[in-house]
Sequence to fold (500 residues):
Amino acid sequence: MQDDTNMAFKAFIVENRIKVNRYLNKILWSFVITGPAIALGVKAGIFPDISYFMCFSISLIVILLSLVHLILLKNHSDASFTSVFALIALDILLVHMTLGHVSINLTWFLVPLLSILFCDDRLYLFALIVNFVMMSAANWFVAPYYSALNHSFENPLAYFLDVMGGYAIETLIMGISGYMIVRISMDYYKRLFAQTELIKEKEKSEQEKLDILDSMAEIYDNVNLISFVDNTEMSLRDEKQQKHGIDMNTQTHTLMNQRIKKQVMGDQLDDFLTFTNITTVRDRMENKKIISADFIDVIKGWFRAQYITVEKGADDKPDMVIYTTRNVDEEKRREEHLYNLSMTDELTRLHNRRSYEEDLDQLRKHILTDDFVLFSIDVNGLKTINDTLGHKAGDELIKGASDCLDLSIRQNGKIYRTGGDEFMAIVHTDKPEEIRKHIMEMASKWHGTYCDELSMSIGYAGIADHKDSTVDELEHIADSDMYNEKEKYYSSIGHDRRRH
Fold:
């Protein structure tokens, strides 16, 4: 930013130099009337020692100097030498008038005084020194004339020293005071430009924030700018963008949330009101950039409410936040779809072991009802089918088993494929034995492309028969019952599994 300030100050100096050069050119041209004015004084007898030729020459010199400066101004209006020429031109005019015995006195100090306008300390010192040198030279040449008129001086040197002694003191005072004025002016303008740059940076920052807010207003359904400094809210989606006051003593929710809460699902309303309580937002967002929560709109579905920190205070709590809401119903549906996929067995489309374990975790937290029954099912002979007919036949058998289970149980429970040929089912029924028989009947009627028959061993355990048992104990009992059924099956076909 320091570089920007220096560049801005230099640009100001150049622009100011152009303006002052134009101003000095007008001053030079105004001196054209000096000759005629003095001539009138000569005619009236006021200036008896001045000739008409001197009056003419003054005007002629002014015209020539003004024309040269005008040419420089048109071609090099911002150049330092254009300024230098204007100041020297004034000094030349004063020297000529002095030599013509035109008493100018304090007019000598006009030149360094005008140079102050450039706000350039080097140019001021140059003008002061040149002015003093030319003043000294002019008074040296006229010293004999004036010493002869004034008999109080013994010789021209005495006159010269007397006059220049006064001019030297005045020049010193002028030099010090003028230099201080120039330096103060330069420092003032530098500070002014530094402040201007700060303001520009702040305006740029504020504009960037507004651009971001405008972009956010396009993305979100609702965008509210909330200031805890003056306790106001303003909707950025509102064309008027009118600020509304927030009474932190009596008001717990903004006008926007008072409107939104009317569409929040009833069982989520308390959570929504807690999350959007405006009196607690600052404390909850201490050292945080964002807080968010998801709720259901009864009309539009899921939406996400967010508070985003815009500006922080000294206490690391937000002084200004953006409150937004955005519909995320489609996102939630995708999440739900992905979740369901992660809980589903790819082959059978039944629930998988992960889903089964999560459901068991939930069941462990609650008291089991009297109609709760846990089924354990295993497909008989799957390994033999895979070894003899191939995995396509094995997959067909597993799908056939899942279809039979789904048709028999889905009205009363949930089915899981927990292993290669293993299934579990959580069922609510008073007649578990009838369900087992129905599954076996469905299996006996099944026929596939690769396999002609399907057989399953089915065990179960319910709270009705095993009071005060946990879900893990029921699982163990159901597994044991299933293995007993499997032994019966292999015995019925004359196959000794243990010997095999």
About this structure: The domain at 220-328 is CATH 3.30.450 (Beta-Lactamase). The CA atoms of residues 119 and 187 lie 10 Å apart.
